[in-house]
Every structure is written in C-alpha cells, then in structure tokens.
Design brief:
This protein has about 280 residues and is of the alpha/beta class. The chain has a domain at about 65-170. It is about 30% helix and about 10% strand. It contains ten helices and ten strands. The protein has helices spanning about 45-50, 65, 80-95, 110-120, 145-150, 170-175, 180-185, 190-205, 210, 235-250, and strands at about 1-5, 10-15, 20-25, 60, 75, 100-105, 120-125, 155, 185-190, 265. The strands form four sheets. A three-stranded antiparallel β-sheet has the order 1-3-2, with no helix packed on it. Strands 5-6-7 form a three-stranded parallel β-sheet, covered by helices on one side. Helix 3 (about 80-95) links the parallel strand 5 (about 75) and strand 6. The chain starts with a strand and ends in a 14-residue tail after the last strand. The model is unreliable at about 150-155 and about 180-190 (pLDDT under 50).
C-alpha cells in the first residue's frame, strides 16, 4: 500500500489534485503476491488529511540538534465511560504531572464536557464524526479507536517500575560511551512498518465491512473456562491490529509486543469515583 510505482491497475487510486497514484490493495507482507480487494478510492482524502499518504515530511530528527520528540497521549470517551476516563486522568496527573493528555469527546453530555474542560493537564477536543462515513458513529464498532490511536481508558500506570521511565538524551549518549562518533549519528525516523500498519488500519476502519464483517460479534463466551477453543468472537480494533502486526512481523509476536507489561495493569469495570485536579 502507499505510493505506487508499478501496481496492478485494479489496485490503483489516483489523487486528482496531484496526479499521484497509490496502491490501495492490502498485500500480505510475507508473500506480496497474496493481495486483498482494493479499498474504496473515496477514502484517499481522509488518508491525506491524516498525513498517511501524500507529501509527507519524513526528515530525520537529529538527537544532538533537536532532542527526542515528546509523545502525545490521546484518549477518548462517551458518557458511559466518563468515570473510567476520569480515573485515567487521575493517573496521568499523578505519574506524569508535567504532561498533558488530549481528550476527544465522542459523546459527552454538556455537563460532562464542561467538567472535562476543567481538569488540569487536559486538552479537550471534539471528535468530528462528520469527516468520516456515517457508520463511524457506531461507537461499539470501535472505528474511532483506530482513527484516534486512543489510549484505552481502563489502563492504569505504575510509577515504581524503573523501566517505565523515559530515557534521557544523556542516557542514550552514555550507551555509546567510548564510541564518540556513534551518538552523533543517532537519528529518529518513524518506522516504515508503523506507517504502513497505520495506513492499513485506517483504510480498514473506513471500509464498511472490513473492520466489521457480516456476522461478527463482540462478546466471547468461554463456557468451560478454557481459552483454547474457537468461540467466533471479534474484538474489532484489537483483532485488526493483532492481525496486521502479526502479518507484518512474520507471525512472531515478540517482534511487535511492547515488553512493558510491568508499567500498567488493565482493570476493566473500575469505576470508583475519583476526581481529577481542577484548573479551570
């Protein structure tokens, strides 16, 4: 997927504004001859707006000159998860007091939206469903998660685990101690694998029956308490990302899992009322 040089005509989508042609078929990374049906070309403007294709600025960020770019923390919620997301914000304020989290409103009442805007370290934004196909509004299909790359609101951060803390620029330089020229040549560029997975995921989220195939259901019922049987449930965004990442890394899960499980725990259903600090 992405910019096309020599691509089968049935996979091509053309940007009428620039004349550029893009490959809108999914190709299996381990065997590119295996490809899927072309995604609808009408999603090309959305990919351009999200800076997944087009004239991208892929310049290197030199560590010596500009430092390591700060990550952006993003989450979202509607009214039925307002208590959980408050708990997440409490954790951010406690563990990362000098950082901000961008909160996207995907269905808050006026009162809850006003309360969210009052919290410290929170940048409130309204998610514009009008930019996307109408079915993106179906929150339980979780297309919005792919589009926002949202942090799940039931993740709790740990502050005591040393490997959860950021590496400083000086620490990175120390790793190359004794080889002075090395750190001067360290540069950061967003991984091409990540770019492609993100592009593929967004296209699937925008295509009506890609993320939500006919007959798919969310809930998994394991009657005997074992998890080694096929129960035909579908976790939408989670299933999609697992599939894309597994395919991209030759089915080796160790190549795409984070290895930072000690930094957080997942506590679904935790709705204890804990209010974040208020600044506005």
């Amino acid at each position: 997927m992405g910019s096309a040089t020599a691509v089968e005509p049935e996979c091509q989508c053309k940007d009428n504004a620039t004349g550029a042609t893009y490959n809108f078929c999914y190709h299996l990374p381990v065997d590119p001859s295996v490809r899927g049906k072309r995604f609808d070309c009408r999603y090309l403007p959305q990919l351009k707006r999200l800076r997944l294709i087009g004239n991208l600025n892929n310049d290197y960020v030199w560590i010596e000159a500009g430092g390591i770019p700060e990550p952006t923390f993003i989450t979202a919620a509607s009214d039925n998860h307002f208590l959980e997301v408050q708990r997440l914000i409490v954790d951010f304020q406690r563990v990362l007091p000098n950082k901000s989290v961008v909160f996207y409103d995907i269905g808050l009442s006026e009162d809850n939206a006003a309360e969210m805007k009052s919290f410290c370290n929170v940048k409130y934004k309204k998610f514009h469903f009008s930019n996307y196909p109408v079915y993106v509004r179906k929150l339980k299909e979780y297309r919005w998660k792919i589009l926002l790359i949202a942090v799940s609101s039931n993740i709790r951060f740990h502050e005591s685990e040393p490997k959860c803390h950021a590496l400083s620029l000086e620490h990175l330089k120390h790793l190359a101690e004794g080889r002075p020229p090395v750190w001067r040549n360290i540069k950061y560029l967003k991984d091409d694998h990540l770019d492609k997975v993100e592009e593929e995921a967004v296209l699937c989220a925008l295509e009506n029956k890609c993320l939500v195939p006919d007959g798919s259901k969310l809930f998994c019922k394991f009657n005997d308490g074992t998890y080694d049987k096929r129960v035909a449930c579908h976790r939408y965004d989670q299933s999609l990302m697992s599939l894309l990442l597994t395919n991209r890394h030759a089915y080796n899960v160790k190549l795409w899992t984070s290895g930072v499980e000690d930094c957080f725990n997942i506590t679904p259903g935790a709705i204890t009322r804990t209010s974040p600090k208020i600044c506005h």
